[in-house]
Design brief:
Aminopeptidase; alpha+beta
C-alpha cells in the first residue's frame, strides 16, 4: 500500500541508501538531498519504506515522476509503481505522467515500459555519468491508456 509521506528521515533513508544514491545523481551533482516538503510536491512511499516516488507538477494536467527503490524492491518495483500511478490518477488532477530516464538505466526503462509508459522522445547529450555524456529518454503515460 502506498501512502503520502512528509517524513524527511523516511524519504532520505531511501534516497541516500548506499546502493541507490549513485543511480540518482550525475557526476557534477552533490548528493546532499533534502526532501522539499511543499503542497505541490508529493512523495509516495510503500509500507516497507523500500520505495519512494516523487510527483512534481509540470502544468495543470501533467506531472513528472521520479522513482527510487532500495535493493529489496529491485526487480519487484512494478507493483509499487502501478499502485502509485493508480493513487496519483485517483487523488490528483493529473492525467499525464512523464519520466526522464538516462539511457544507461536499463532497469528503470524496463520498469516503466512494463507498466505502460511509452517512449516519447530523446533529450540528447543531457546527462553526465562516469564522465561520459548520455542521452535521456522521455517516457509518458496518459491516464486513459492504463
Amino acid at each position: 500500500m502506498v501512502k503520502v509521506c512528509t517524513d524527511i528521515p523516511t524519504i532520505q533513508g531511501i534516497l541516500t541508501h548506499p546502493k541507490v544514491r549513485d543511480w540518482l545523481t550525475d557526476d557534477n551533482s552533490s548528493f546532499n538531498y533534502e526532501p522539499v516538503i511543499h503542497p505541490q510536491i508529493i512523495y509516495l512511499v510503500n509500507k516497507e519504506h523500500t520505495g519512494v516516488i516523487r510527483i512534481d507538477p509540470l502544468n495543470s494536467m501533467t506531472c513528472s515522476v521520479h522513482i527510487a527503490t532500495t535493493p529489496e524492491l529491485w526487480g519487484k518495483g512494478a507493483e509499487f509503481a502501478l499502485e502509485a500511478l493508480t493513487w496519483g490518477f485517483k487523488n490528483t488532477q493529473y492525467s499525464k505522467v512523464v519520466a526522464i530516464i538516462p539511457e544507461y538505466n536499463e532497469r528503470t526503462i524496463k520498469l516503466v515500459q512494463k507498466i505502460g509508459f511509452v517512449k516519447e522522445g530523446v533529450i540528447t547529450k543531457s546527462f553526465l555519468k562516469r564522465w561520459k555524456v548520455h542521452n535521456q529518454f522521455l517516457f509518458g503515460l496518459y491516464k486513459g491508456d492504463t
